[in-house]
Design a protein that fits this description.
By secondary structure, this protein is α/β, with parallel strands linked by helices. It has helices at about 15-25, 75-80, and strands spanning about 10, 30-35, 40-45, 45-50, 70, 85-95, 100-105, 110-115.
Length: about 120
């Protein structure tokens, strides 16, 4: 049985990432190991981990070919909170497939989408 998925994303600036997720998105830092360059954060039912880049992979910047899609029942409130303080990918819109959503980039360039069923 599979019961959980927790993304582990790389960041070249872990302190800035912790600030973004705690100060902008109101996440909690559940664990932080500065020596390891690793942290686990959570908010409500979401958990995400960040680590310094793996030196064996030697990637020049953070990459993710997809996005992190966050479902919420307060998409309008999140838009009001984030639209003025974040780099917006696309503005709040209601789509024909039944979702009201918007997307921003975090401090690493990862795409975060926020959606609510309509």
């Amino acid at each position: 049985m599979l019961y959980s998925l927790t993304p582990m994303l790389e960041t070249h600036d872990l302190p800035a990432t912790l600030r973004f997720y705690t100060e902008i998105l109101s996440f909690n830092v559940d664990a932080y190991e500065e020596e390891w360059g690793w942290a686990s954060l959570s908010k409500d039912e979401i958990t995400i981990m960040f680590s310094r880049p793996n030196p064996h992979r030697n990637l020049p910047s953070a990459i993710l070919s997809g996005s992190l899609y966050i479902k919420t029942d307060q998409v309008d409130q999140w838009w009001e909170k984030l639209s003025l303080s974040c780099n917006v990918c696309y503005e709040l819109e209601t789509f024909e497939y039944g979702m009201r959503e918007f997307a921003i980039y975090d401090n690493n360039g990862y795409l975060l989408q926020f959606g609510q069923e309509v």
